[in-house]
Recover the amino acids of this structure.
């Protein structure tokens, strides 16, 4: 029995020492980890949208506060464990409660958290508030496992659509209602085509899903919004860095803004990717001028300046327009 | 309490007879359809361990894919056939693995395995009762869990595979058969299994509440109970009030799947097909789910907190600091747990004004959590600490709870959540604060009460190795994972190599995490070996009270029979935490207050 007690005490000392070692190595590890990975987190502190700047600020405030609490609590936890390891020379101090201490460490966290909630909500309402009136509008539609985009065209109004009108074979993948004239100038971008945005111009995304819930995740802009079938959602922001600028800043000629699906949507979830190009107004206008409304693709004969093609071509058009 | 005196006396007589073996217990009534709370606790624990092995193994499999996406593992094809075609884990397989891993660990291991084990084992022993209020319902509670387990297990073998829509199984993905393999029969089995599980939880929970409120021994006032009892009481209340909501959510989902209703469905065009459903709301399910789902986090955490409080106090030979504050903070957490569910839904298009309330209430939870942490640390301060494996796991719990709790302040703040929602940051956060921390609480409980369960000790050298490897491993796995989340890497992405430009820069990190997780998993297997080996061959307990503890369970015989105390149930004269009082090492709850004793506590 005596030997058993001796080895128990030895184990106690070893474990107390290990706790201290864990604390020291752990804190070094936290530092090392940040050195290794800190530069990979998408230019923390210099994000690519106005809201991203707010998000980064809030993150910075939270990081400072939590880091202080983290160090104080972890150090005292492990240090006390080490310092007050069992010893024959000490008796535990009977200390069941102290109301003053309890009040202090209820009040301080409450005050700090109030500050965090205050800042958080200030930014939250800035981010989720109404989009500016001059914001351009882009509609995003998610479906297994692709993103499709629609621009409202010259009239700046997205035409009405209804899911029962979806007919992919007849050039109507979104279910646009052609009898609504607002649809006639809407530009449709199929999956794979990048969305084009103008730098420093607010954009409001109108977000839909066809089948299951998806999520428009824009890491570089620090934004995210679910795409819910049956319930359209919106999100607005102002991109503040062009793609070219990001290429330069990241020293990465292949840089591209990516849209990731951030809500599990099925087997292809992990490859549901879209891309965005942020460019100057001139570049955007040039690109937009080349786009043709989906209406004219669905009904080529209604396009102004349409010339009736020769008979054979006509026949082919008639065949290809048959709903599948 | 007086109302029960007669009943208790009656029981005493009855069980005295038991103890001298006047009746016969068959193998079946003793080990299988047992109504003894201690046996039922062990049944929950062992079933939980089996599920933990399955769930852990699944995580190793999907970690293989995450760490080594370019590699093929032909052996996987041998075992899993088309699910791992060419030795590569297929997406359907990957999503099934993460779904079942989550479901099993959250519900079967950390709810049934944790609450089921320790509520059953400890409630009658620590409050001084012969058994639960209804031993029969208690037995049913286990067997419903068993049925749920069988159904969930069988779902792993159906042709189209088990559910694979994530442990949250959001519709429409989970509602539409066309949406994927995992949305077929596997999903129905998942829902039925969960329904059975909820029945089990409710039967257990009602029993725990009634027993704690009504069957405390003489002198065991509520404020003399050990904190384990308070924690289990609040856990049970949370479960009883929130699980039925999930049950209704699951039933509506079953209707949508099979009876053509539209609770969650509207405007759907899936797999080239226009569905007739209109008017439902996909978001409704998320409200129903998280109304349970968030309290569930605390259903998992609170019992661990209670056990950690008890174990830290016993082993630092000091009273738990701020007993009433600990009870109060448990209460505050339990209330707030019901009022924060929509913080899982900040990016669903939730009204921002409503979101603001959820931010406020969510961050408010940090206050009682902080109180608990400070009190645990103060409990260690000026103690005389014995580092049993249980103590180490309890300290590990506090450390992990701090780390994971603090990252909760990022996610709970909607502004930051917009960026971090559904990224690996979330995975890292909840694994540390809820998964690993509660697992540590559970390990602490097992090491501490194993002598009471089986009359033998677990091997403590293996216990120390188990602790240190798991502790270091847990931090190595989950701490750097936060950075992936900060870089926007979404969770549930099984391969980012060729497709993604921004996320494809954590190759070596992912390899490291996978290797560490394999080691940590192996260490858990070593623990399981220790567990079963020690049941039969462990060092025998020779003293009634091996940890020199104050609580009632250590006044029972080393191997208590059904009924727990051979004679009368002991009377309680003081709270559970008179350690180091008046120069005495410890004063059991059964000892009357002496004439010269200081009155302050």
């Amino acid at each position: 029995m005596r030997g058993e007690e001796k080895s128990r005490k030895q184990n106690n000392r070893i474990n107390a020492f290990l706790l201290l070692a864990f604390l020291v190595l752990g804190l070094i590890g936290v530092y090392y980890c940040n050195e290794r990975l800190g530069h990979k987190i998408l230019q923390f502190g210099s994000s690519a949208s106005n809201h991203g700047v707010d998000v980064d600020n809030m993150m910075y405030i939270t990081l400072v506060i939590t880091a202080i609490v983290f160090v104080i609590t972890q150090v005292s936890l492990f240090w006390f464990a080490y310092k007050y390891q069992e010893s024959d020379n000490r008796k535990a101090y009977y200390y069941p409660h102290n109301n003053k201490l309890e009040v202090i460490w209820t009040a301080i966290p409450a005050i700090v958290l109030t500050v965090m909630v205050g800042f958080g909500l200030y930014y939250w309402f800035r981010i989720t508030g109404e989009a500016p009136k001059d914001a351009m509008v882009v509609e995003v539609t998610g479906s297994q496992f692709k993103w499709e985009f629609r621009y409202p065209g010259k009239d700046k109004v997205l035409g009405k659509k209804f899911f029962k009108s979806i007919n992919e074979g007849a050039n109507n993948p979104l279910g646009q209602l052609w009898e609504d004239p607002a649809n006639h100038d809407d530009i449709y971008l199929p999956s794979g085509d990048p969305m084009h945005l103008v730098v420093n111009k607010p954009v409001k995304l109108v977000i839909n899903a066809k089948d299951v819930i998806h999520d428009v995740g824009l890491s570089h802009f620090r934004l995210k919004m679910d795409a819910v079938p049956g319930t359209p959602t919106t999100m607005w922001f102002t991109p503040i860095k062009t793609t070219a600028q990001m290429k330069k800043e990241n020293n990465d000629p292949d840089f591209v803004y990516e849209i990731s699906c951030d809500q599990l949507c099925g087997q292809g979830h992990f490859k549901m990717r879209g891309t965005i190009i942020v460019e100057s107004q001139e570049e955007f206008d040039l690109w937009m001028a080349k786009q043709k409304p989906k209406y004219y693709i669905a009904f080529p004969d209604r396009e102004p300046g349409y010339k009736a093609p020769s008979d054979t071509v006509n026949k082919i058009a008639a065949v290809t327009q048959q709903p599948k | 309490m007086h109302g029960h005196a007669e009943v208790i006396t009656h029981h005493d007589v009855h069980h005295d007879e038991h103890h001298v073996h006047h009746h016969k217990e068959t193998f079946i009534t003793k080990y299988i359809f047992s109504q003894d709370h201690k046996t039922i606790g062990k049944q929950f624990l062992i079933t939980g361990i089996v599920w933990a092995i399955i769930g852990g193994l699944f995580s190793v499999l999907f970690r293989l894919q995450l760490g080594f996406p370019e590699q093929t593992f032909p052996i996987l094809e041998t075992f899993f056939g088309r699910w791992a075609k060419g030795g590569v884990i297929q997406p359907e397989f990957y999503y099934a693995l993460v779904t079942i891993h989550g479901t099993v660990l959250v519900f079967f291991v950390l709810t049934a395995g944790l609450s089921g084990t320790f509520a059953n084992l400890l409630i009658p022993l620590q409050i001084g009762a012969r058994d639960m209020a209804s031993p029969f319902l208690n037995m049913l509670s286990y067997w419903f869990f068993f049925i749920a387990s069988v159904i969930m297990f069988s779902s792993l073998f159906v042709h189209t595979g088990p559910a694979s829509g994530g442990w949250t199984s959001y519709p429409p993905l989970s509602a539409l058969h066309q949406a994927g393999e995992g949305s077929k029969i596997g999903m129905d089995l998942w829902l039925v299994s969960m329904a059975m599980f909820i029945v089990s939880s409710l039967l257990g929970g009602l029993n725990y509440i009634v027993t704690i409120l009504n069957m405390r021994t003489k002198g065991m006032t509520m404020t003399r109970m050990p904190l384990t009892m308070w924690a289990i009481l609040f856990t049970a209340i949370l479960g009883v009030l929130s699980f039925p909501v999930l049950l209704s959510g699951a039933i509506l989902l079953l209707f949508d799947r099979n009876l053509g209703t539209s609770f969650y469905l509207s405007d759907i065009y899936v797999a080239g097909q226009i569905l007739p459903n209109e008017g439902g709301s996909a978001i409704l399910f998320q409200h129903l789910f998280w109304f349970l789902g968030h309290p569930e986090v605390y259903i998992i955490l609170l019992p661990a907190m209670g056990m950690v409080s008890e174990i830290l106090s016993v082993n630092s030979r000091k009273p738990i600091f701020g007993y009433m504050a600990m009870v109060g903070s448990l209460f505050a957490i339990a209330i707030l747990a019901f009022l924060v569910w929509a913080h899982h839904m900040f990016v669903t298009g939730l009204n921002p004004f409503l979101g603001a309330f959820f931010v406020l209430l969510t961050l408010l939870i940090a206050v009682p959590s902080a109180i608990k942490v400070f009190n645990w640390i103060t409990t260690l301060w000026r103690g005389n600490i014995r580092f049993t494996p249980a103590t180490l796991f309890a300290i590990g719990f506090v450390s992990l709870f701090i780390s994971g709790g603090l990252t909760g302040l990022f996610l709970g703040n909607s502004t930051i959540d917009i960026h971090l929602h559904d990224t690996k940051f979330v995975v890292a956060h909840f694994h540390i604060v809820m998964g690993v921390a509660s697992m540590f609480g559970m390990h602490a409980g097992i090491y501490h009460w194993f002598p009471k369960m089986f009359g033998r000790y677990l091997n403590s050298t293996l216990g120390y190795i188990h602790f240190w490897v798991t502790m270091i491993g847990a931090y190595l796995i989950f701490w750097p994972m936060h950075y992936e989340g900060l870089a926007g890497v979404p969770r549930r992405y099984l391969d980012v190599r060729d497709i993604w430009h921004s996320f494809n820069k954590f190759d070596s990190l992912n390899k490291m995490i996978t290797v560490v997780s394999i080691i940590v998993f192996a260490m858990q297997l070593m623990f399981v070996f220790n567990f079963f080996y020690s049941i039969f061959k462990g060092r025998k307990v020779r003293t009634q009270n091996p940890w020199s503890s104050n609580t009632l369970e250590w006044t029972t015989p080393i191997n208590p029979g059904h009924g727990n105390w051979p004679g009368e149930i002991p009377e309680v004269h003081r709270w559970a935490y008179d350690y180091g009082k008046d120069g005495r090492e410890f004063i059991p709850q059964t000892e009357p207050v002496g004439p010269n004793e200081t009155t302050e506590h």
Notes: Confidence is low (pLDDT under 50) at residues 1-22 of chain B.
